[in-house]
Amino acid sequence: MTTAPAPVGVPPTAADTEGTRRRVLELVASEGPVSASELAARLNLTSAAVRRHLACLEQDGTVAVHEAGRNDRRRGRPARRYVVSTTGQSELGGEDVELATQAMRFLRRTAGDEAVAAFAAERNEAVVRRYAPRLTGTDPHTRAEQLAELLAGDGYAASVRPVVGPQVPVVQLCQGHCPVQHAAEDFPELCEAEAHAFARLLGTHVQRLATLAGGAHACVTNVPLAPPTPAGRTRGTQEGSR
User: Fold this and answer.
1) Mean pLDDT of the 127-150 span
2) Is the overall model pTM greater than 0.70, yes or no?
3) CATH code at 109?
C-alpha cells in the first residue's frame, strides 16, 4: 500500500503528516535496515520528504542509523540505513507487556521455570493451531511467505528475505517488531517456543540467528529450502531453539 502525495498547492495537515510519519516508522520496522530512497519508492514520496520524516523520528529517538551501513565500502558516500530503536518498538505498541511480565515473574516465583516454559509452549501451540490451516504452500519458501503475512497481520512487521551465497538454499524470516519484546527480554522461553512453532508450521528445522529481545534490530530466523536428509534433518541447519 502506498501513501498518495497531497495535491499540488495544498499543504498537508497535521494528521496527514502524523499518518505519513507513522507509516515511515512501520516500514522501517518491516524493511530495515532501509534507506530514505527505498522508503520514498515504497511511499510514492520524494526522498527529501522522507528524509524530513526520518530526521524527526531520529530526533525523537524512535529510529536510528544502522551501524553496519557506516562500513559500506562502495564508492561515494554510503546511504544512511535506518532501523527502529527500542523506543520506537515501544511506540509501535502491542500487548500490555508490563502486566504480562509481572504475571510471568509471579509464575516463575511461585511455580518455577518449568511452569514458565509450559506457558510459553501453550501460547505458541495456540499460534500453531490458528496459523496452520492458513499455510497452504507445499514448500518451505511459500509457507515462509504465508507465515510472514500472517505475522505481519498480528503486528510483527514480518518479511521474507533471500540469502545470497549459502551452500544450502536459505531464506530469512525477519520480524521487525515483537509485541512481547520486553517480556521476552526477561523470559527467553517465549523466543524458544516461537522457534519451535515456526519449525512445525514450516515443516523444516529452522535456526534463530537474532532476536529483538537480545538487542538485534530484528528477529531473524534462517529457513532452509533444501529437502530434509533421510535422518529427518536439513543439511547445514539446526533448530534455533536448541
Assistant:
1) 94
2) no
3) 3.30.1380
